[in-house]
Amino acid sequence: QFLSPAVRFGDTVTMRLNLFKGVQPVAMLLPLEMTFITLPVVTAIEPSAAPFAASTVVTIAATNFGNDTATLTVTIGGVVCRNPMIVVTPPALVCTAPPGRGSSHAVLVSREVLGTSLTSVANPATFSYLEVAPVALFCSFAGSGERLQCGFDSRIAQIPDMQTCSSFISQETVRLLGAATRCIWADEATLSILLGHSQRIQVGDTVSFSPGAIRKAEAMSEAASNSVRVTMDL
Question: Which residue from 43, 66, 91, 212 has the highest number of Cβ atoms inside 10 Å of its Cβ?
Fold first, then answer.
């Protein structure tokens, strides 16, 4: 056993070993070379989520990956991230994420050094695939006209601060809904909008949803972004 000198990643050190008996040297071994290598380290990925069918270019913040893409393999959920490129400052790798499904896939970087594959260990950087956004199918007057019922094509994830409506309905639409408008879910796919005082919305007006607000309940998904025209009771 011996204590190595202070070196940098990739440095090669030549060692000469002498064998002693007591204090008398009895043999000198041939010089040996040792190259110091460390595992790649991944710290972040941007973006960390993208549509499942898209070919998304991602940037992976990492270190200790060398300077030759021919020796590198980047995987997301065990599938190769294509066309890796090296960014020098700040150190990062850019590649094209493969299509996939599911969430929280591990992002790993492997590097071939002297015939040995060095792979980064588990890290906080994960990548998720977004399912297709839910679609608003209709918004129609219901009851005696005191509310709107808006139906979606799938179950919707729980939304904080439901009753104010303004957290997930666009401000342009909220202004038409009147003062003290309330929103509740009639079921997991149907939004009931209880119209407020002095509401001005009418048949043919558009109900628009706030970007990033309404997503599917079953899996991570893109957010609903379509608008729908108000009709009479279906």
Answer: 66
**Is the bond into 98 cis (omega within 30 degrees of 0)?**
no
Question: Which letter, b or e, does each residue of 39-56 get, where b requires 16 or more Cβ atoms within 10 Å of its Cβ?
Answer: ebebeebeeebbebeeeb
Instruction: Report mean pLDDT in 10-residue bins for the chain, 234 residues.
Output: 58 67 69 73 94 90 90 94 93 94 93 83 88 92 92 86 78 92 90 92 93 85 88 74
Nearest 5°: the CA angle 100, 87, 6 is 115
pTM of this structure: 0.67
What's the DSSP call for residue 206? E
DSSP-derived letter for residue 118 is E
* Phi–psi pair at 69, nearest 5 degrees: -65, -20
**CB neighbour list of residue 145: distance below 8 Å, 6 or more residues apart:** none
End-to-end Cα, the chain, rounded Å: 82
As a whole number of angstroms, the distance between CA 166 and CA 177 comes to 10
> Is omega for the bond preceding 90 within 30 degrees of 0, making it cis?
yes
